[in-house]
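Final report, Chapter 2: Outcomes

The project's central promise was a pipeline that accepts a single protein chain and returns its three-dimensional structure in a standardized token representation, suitable for archiving and comparison. That pipeline is now operational. To close this chapter, we reproduce one record exactly as it appears in the project archive, with the input sequence first and the structure output second.
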Amino acid sequence: MALHLIKLAVGIEDVAQLRKVQKERRRERGRSVFYTRHMPRRREEILDGGSIYWVIKGYIRVRQRILGFIPVVEDDGERYCLVRYDPKAVETMWQPKRAFQGWRYLLPKDAPADRPARAATEDKLPDAMAEELRALGLL
């Protein structure tokens, strides 16, 4: 069973902005990657179909499939890891998530479901209204 990662999308307001920022970074870096200080110890489980779930404004809103991990050692000996991900962003059902630092493992049972395909074509509530309705337990 695949294991997932979860990470805050700091400074991102919505999924459209995440896509735009990632597109710009892909153009700069030549690939879809984000940096992290530590290589996940459970990377084999993650590479068995795992995704990175992005927390935007206090809610898990979107995921992207993880494609690989690239260890990097700088000339000064500093080590970090590049996490390669699929540029295709799949919106999920919104799930509240408190802030945390770095990334965390996310078990499949705790991951939100993908948003139904039909939901993307329906009239969408403004994010602020949808967030307030979710906080009240009405959505």
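Archive annotation: The helical segments are 15-29, 43-46, 117-121, 127-135.
This record, like all others produced under the grant, will remain available to the consortium after the project formally closes.
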